Amino acid sequence: MDNGKIKNINKLRMMKKILFALMVLTAFSSCAAGNKLHVKMNVKNVGDTIVVVSQDDNRQTFTGQKGVFDFEVEVPAVTTLYLVEPQLFRGLPSAQYQIPAVPGEEVVLTAEDDSRYDINGSAFYAQFHEADTAIEEAGKPLFAFMADLQAKLDAGASRDSLMKVYQEQLPALQQKIEDAVTGFIKAHPDWEASAAIIPQLQDLDKMKAAAQLLSASVRDGRCKPLYQNAIDQMETQQKAEEEAAAKQAEGIEAPDFTLNDLSGKPLTLSSLRGKYVILDFWGSWCGWCIKGFPQMKEYYKKYAGKFEILGIDCNDSETKWKAAVEKHELPWLHVYNPSDSKVLEQYGIQGFPTKIVVGPDGKIVKTIVGEDPAFYTLLDELFK
């Protein structure tokens, strides 16, 4: 083979290497751009730092100036992001924004104050803005209703009477929002934004039905995680609630346990057999738990000797637990539930406070989640 042919073959090989390198570089550049969401913010109520939090609690911090931000955030796939101020992680008040995050798009977030914010931007976000505006309009009667109830409560109205009004009128007001969501999806089955608003239905069967209203390309397209994650989470929650209900059902034997009391000595639930015992699952960090203490103390005194309360502190350090008991002057029995304990799992605890009334025979009489007047009605029924 002559030198000319050798040179031509070498040139061809070099050309192929260069073309391959360019293809790799182009693919990498496209992939990198496609994995980022361009975020622009003009929000009057935040400072110079914003933290972007993913659903798996991954955090990325960005700086701006007087509420104006312009940055790109890594988003490997369509998801939901939360934008908050850093003081939130110190337990302080913070502005909070939730956005559907679609890689390769640009979102523009604006807010004049803490009451509301707008989401707009490139093609997807222009669609989302239209959907969000329609839903917000449908929700105005509900927001006005809630504001009116709060004003009446602040003015001294009875909580029980307001709760009755709330329970009577809430379903119809919520239905207006649900109708707006499903109506928008029916009108725009080919819009990706329609997939993003499905979680606002907040009901498993309704979310599944709404997903079927989407065109096949949207239902199974890149924005599927925006509704499928919500459906998966609700299915998991529903299963957990069913399991909890079984563990907390009336007539079930209350699982025995031993935890240390304020003196560091072990206290076993079965040692209290023969009297009514109220298991109060709480924590010093739980605002509703703390709000309930004054009335709990009243009833503890009112029916002194007829029942015992066993406070089970959860998700606290021992120091904070003991300080809270002392600060609020809680006169009943207390035990500390460490992080490696199985007690929360045994009782299927889903929220705080949870009060479980155990009868003298050691069987569950009633479970009440939240600070609910029904708890005190039950005590009156049992001990009057």
Explain briefly what this protein structure is:
The chain is α+β, with helices and mostly antiparallel strands.
Task: Specify the biggest β-sheet.
Answer: 7 strands, mixed
Instruction: State the total count of DSSP E strands.
Output: 15
Helix content: 40-55%
The largest beta-sheet arranges its strands as: 10-9-13-12-11-14-15
The N- and C-terminal alpha carbons lie at a distance of 111 Å
Shape: elongated
Number of distinct helices? 11
Query: What structural category do the secondary elements indicate?
Result: alpha+beta
Roughly what fraction of the amino acids lie in strands? 15-25%
On the 0-100 scale, what is the average pLDDT? 90
The radius of gyration over CA amounts to 28 Å
Order of helices and strands: HEEEEEEEEHHHHHHEEEHEHEHEEH
* Spans of at least 5 consecutive residues with low confidence: 1-33
Characterization of the model:
- The protein is α+β, with helices and mostly antiparallel strands.
- 46% of the residues lie in helices and 22% in strands.
